[in-house]
Design goal:
With 483 residues, the protein is α/β, with parallel strands linked by helices. It contains 15 helices and 18 strands. The relative contact order is 0.15. The structure holds pyridoxal-5'-phosphate. The site of pyridoxal-5'-phosphate has 14 residues, from helix 7. The site of pyridoxal-5'-phosphate (PLP) has 14 residues, from helix 7.
Length: 483
């Protein structure tokens, strides 16, 4: 029997898609089974027939079901992607980032205009929020034109710090004082200030592998060394691997994303996060939690950042509006707790303060309720894009290709056949008008030569589908040329 618990709040159309997908995933609906008729489904879940039709058409586009003329919709026999094996064999000595030249080449490439943007992790663009932000900015300009042209205070505009603190209370039930928060130039500066406050040149920093390439470049620029810690493809960094690393190496700090790492896109279970906090407290090591994707789980669940679990460990949380609203505003933050004076001193030395108009605009945007409404619409859009991308990879790439199964965020991590060099693929894709991110950048040792990161954070369109088909054909070509 089809399980029809549709829950509340989500869009009706999305509810039907999720309901069918969940029944397929759980095996209740099997390949070849007929879906309930449009009318029956509409009666069962209390949505209109056109809405059910729209959902079935979308499921067809996702290649989960197929329409048979005059008969109805049936569950497809689909090839599913196997899960990536992301370990990359870490365990060597701490190293400095190996990929400076490649990083420069990739950034030159992906910043070209008019490319199909599969290289940049820019999930807020899947449902751009320009109108809402412009409205908020207009209201700010009408009220505080003069003020917004001046310098904001070093730690940031109180209105925004209060909104951020309120959001922690509202979404997680935790009490963060606005005075503990320092506004930064995006998540990148938050990570830079956090790292500079706990470590210095020559120190060893533990990172997950694969890792966000920007943090690797940062560690390198600060003269620090990175040591990679093994991850599990479904749950992110492995606490037992952190323990082994802390026992073997003189680690000064860890930088992990326990909610939606980049590029794996998965979340650490709560009990492991608790063990992680106990571990770093026992070893007297700082933890910098990169939480820039914390709001972007597809299911809207907001796991508790490690800093808010009861402990005496030294933990800093780095957040940002780049992934959830507007990367061009360059506004992020650190929940610095008792280190706020140290962070403020560093912030003043490095960049004085952050854009005032952008801070006021974001505070207004949050206070109006538009931010929450935007996130509620963005998450299902991202889930839908992730499903579409996985389905097209399963259809158009060689059978050995494996993918991540993200819980949220905006990127898919692909393991291509061993013989495929993702750096060469990056070059030929740029020539074909498509940006991608070669996997080597996700490791300080340049591991993952046959891995590729693709972004699904943009409005889905035919050009995206054509780009994925082109990439699949190119991977086939490269794999067969080398055999
Ligand atoms: C995991 C992660 N952390 C931090 C950042 C930097 O964020 P921002 O653009 O706010 O500086 C990014 C951006 O790609 C990211 O993916």
């Amino acid at each position: 029997m089809l399980h029809t618990d549709t829950g509340h709040g989500a869009f009706k159309y999305r509810q039907v898609i999720d309901l069918i997908a969940e029944n397929i995933d759980s095996g209740t609906l099997r390949p070849g089974d007929r879906l309930p008729s449009l009318r029956k489904m509409s009666e069962r879940v209390g949505v209109s027939v056109p809405t059910v039709r729209q959902a079935y058409v979308e499921l067809e586009r996702l290649r989960r079901v197929e329409a048979r003329p005059k008969s109805g919709y049936y569950v497809r026999h689909v090839k599913r992607n196997d899960l990536v094996d992301p370990t990359g064999n870490p365990g060597g000595p701490p190293v400095s980032c190996a990929c400076r030249t490649l990083m420069e080449r990739v950034y030159d490439g992906i910043n070209q205009p008019d490319l199909v943007p599969l290289g940049i992790a820019n999930p807020s663009m899947a449902r751009p929020v320009a109108k809402g932000l412009h409205r908020a900015m207009k209201r700010v300009m009408a009220r505080a034109e003069q003020r917004s042209l001046g310098y904001a205070s070093t730690v940031g505009e109180p209105l925004l710090r209060r909104q951020i603190a309120y959001r922690y209370l509202d979404t997680l039930g935790v009490n963060v004082e606005p005075d503990e928060i320092c506004i930064t130039n995006g998540g990148q500066e938050a990570l830079m200030l956090a790292l500079s406050s706990v470590a210095t040149a020559g120190d060893v920093i533990a990172v997950e592998t694969p890792a966000y390439h920007g943090v690797l470049e940062l560690i390198d620029s600060l003269g620090m060394l990175a040591i990679e810690v093994k991850t599990c493809p479904e749950e992110g960094v492995e606490v037992s691997a952190v323990e082994a690393t802390l026992e073997k190496h003189p680690v000064k700090a860890c930088v992990f994303s326990t909610t939606i790492g980049n590029p794996l896109g998965v979340t650490m279970p709560d009990e492991d996060r608790r063990r992680l906090v106990d571990l770093i407290e026992r070893h007297d090591v700082a933890l910098i939690e990169d939480d820039v994707y914390g709001e972007l789980r597809f299911d809207g669940q907001r796991p508790m950042p490690a800093q808010f679990l009861d402990s005496n460990a030294h933990i800093l949380t780095c957040g940002s509006f780049s992934k959830s609203a507007a990367p061009g505003y360059r506004i992020g933050w650190i929940v610095a707790g008792e280190s706020v004076d140290t962070i403020a001193r560093l912030k003043r030395a490095f960049s004085c303060s952050s854009g005032f108009l952008q801070q006021l605009t974001l505070a207004e945007f949050m206070a109006s309720g538009d931010y929450e409404r935007h996130l509620k619409a963005l998450r299902p859009e991202l889930r839908c894009n992730a499903d579409r991308m996985s389905a097209l990879v399963a259809q158009h790439f060689p059978a050995e290709t494996r993918t991540s199964k993200p819980d949220g965020g905006g990127v898919l991590w692909l393991e291509l056949p061993d013989s495929v060099d993702a750096e060469l693929l990056f070059d030929s894709a740029i020539d074909a008008g498509i940006s991608t991110l070669p996997g080597k950048l996700s490791s300080p040792r340049g591991a993952y030569p046959n891995f590729l990161r693709l972004s699904f954070g943009h409005p889905w369109c035919e050009a995206t589908e054509d780009a994925l088909k082109w990439l699949g054909a190119e991977v086939y070509r490269m794999a067969s040329a080398s055999s």
